[in-house]
Design goal:
This protein is α+β, with helices and mostly antiparallel strands. It contains 9 helices and 20 strands. The strands form 6 sheets. Strands 7-8-4-1-20-19 form a 6-stranded mixed β-sheet, with helices on one face. The chain has a 6-stranded mixed β-sheet with strand order 9-12-13-14-18-15, with no helix packed on it. A two-stranded antiparallel sheet has the order 2-3.
Amino acid sequence: MRLVNFNIEWMNDWFVGGNKVAFRQNNPNKGIDNVDDLAKRVAGLILSADPDVLTIEEGPSDIREMQLFVSTYLSKNNVLLYDVFGGIDGSSQKIYALVKKNGGLANGQLVVEPETAKLKNKWECDIDGNGIAEPYKFTRLPVVIEGDLANGKKCRIITMHSKSNYVHNGEKLWKNPATKQQFINTALESRRRISTEAMRVRMYLDTLISNDPNANIIVTGDLNDGPGLDYFEMRYLTHNVIDIILGSTFAHELLFRHSFIDKVNPSNRYTAEFYDYVDGEDKKLLLDHIAVSPAMVNSIVSSGILHNEYDAAMDPNATRDRQKRPSDHRPIFLDI
């Protein structure tokens, strides 16, 4: 089975919206000069990767729009190649799981058992740092699907898109001494949200593995954080968010394994490139991840980042960045 995870930058910008389920021709305000060309290149990237399961972040706000993308660009001889799951919440950036028909994950379906249903519930945490824990829920509820592998074993796939650490007018606030502290406070609130969402998923994983140590579980998605400590984690927080998902070394039997961190050359360990105005430099960031449960570690055949496929989907003739690139994130994959 091949899993591909792809944050497809603001797919919502491709569609008319409202009650009309249709593609735009273009969206100049979002830097898109030709929606059809952009969608074809994204679909070409997906088809070249040939996933059995494709998990998507920043999907459209209406599941019918995702179904339209599949029927228009991911079909063969008028036959849909994928079933669509997800689109549960997340406003204009929803999470989806596409499962290939007759692919490496059979009988794919959304998981609705009680422990998974609890992810919808609020929990208490201190988001604003005032020392008072208040009710909180996921910004975007993780999408959880399950199906059968070729060996007959069940496999559960959890897709996350944690809270963004974006701050509106952040660079302006950061560079103005009068508003710098306001920026820091807002940035820390976002990171507390990312942290508590990771913690809640980790509690869910602990329960699943404690109930079944041999469970086949994959966690993937855009966690908006990566290895190492950034400016805020070094100065204000005591942990790195991805470490929460992987688990505690003091509970070794529950530890998840990052699927490709040791398989990709250090110079290529990135899925996004952004200008970091806090540190004043362009950065290559590893924001997208795939982790597997203890029982699946020895099942990994290959895993990594689809740099070549991403580069092939670029349009060197486009004049604006959004039209030029398939997304601002590079897809990642896992073969088991």
